[in-house]
Amino acid sequence: MTCQTYSLFILSVIMIYFGRFGNSLNLTQLQNDIDQLKAEFKANHSDVADGGSIFTGKLINWTERNEKRIILSQIVSKYLEMFKNTDVSKAYIRHISEELHTLNESLHDGSKKMEDLMDLTKLQMSDLKIQRKAANELFSVLQKLRETSSSLKRKRSQSQRRCKC
């Protein structure tokens, strides 16, 4: 229960983040709903702070917009999991849950990217067949890596030329 109560703060952060980029969210109403949810879960108990944050600490390392979509898709999924076990007969819980479902649909590509990362972690690199496939794809992977790094260099040099400091 402590995890659930502290995670309500992160729910606020997610809703605010998407409120800036997705104009469909009514942040005033959501804030009221989240305040009611916090009261129900007694989120102001001192044990909520024990062990630090469960989501905000992870958000710090994800800086680019596309990166944030990946981590936020996973965080929203965790909230949806939490709401499966709550009483949706209350209007404020139902409203938050509906908004999370809407956000989750807009983050679908982030979920797919996370699945790809999880699939990579599951690869058994000691398997000979996997090693053969990896060796076969190595040159293509290195080409993609080179393309990515050269486009970053190009962007940096263009911005340096524009700046007449």
Give the topology.
Elements: H1 2-21, H2 27-41, H3 56-59, H4 65-84, H5 91-106, H6 108-122, H7 128-162
Helix pairs in contact: 1-2, 1-4, 2-5, 4-5, 4-6
Summarize the structure in words.
By secondary structure, this protein is mainly α. The chain has seven helices and no strands. The chain has helices at residues 2-21, 27-41, 56-59, 65-84, 91-106, 108-122, 128-162. Helix 4 packs across helix 6 (108-122). The longest helix has 35 residues, at 128-162. The radius of gyration is 21 Å and the shape is elongated. The model has no long low-confidence stretch (mean pLDDT 79).
Which bin fits the share of residues in helices? over 70%
Q: Unreliable segments (pLDDT under 50, ≥5 consecutive)?
A: none
H/E element sequence: HHHHHHH
Biggest sheet architecture: none
Helical segment tally?
7
Number of strands: 0
**First-to-last CA distance:** 54 Å
Beta-strand proportion = under 5%
The residue-averaged pLDDT reads 79
Strand pairing plus helix content: what structural class? mainly alpha
| Shape summary | elongated
C-alpha Rg, in Å? Answer: 21 Å
Summarize it.
The chain contains seven helices and no strands. The chain is an all-alpha fold and 165 residues long.
Main features:
7 helices; 165 residues; mainly alpha; 76% helix
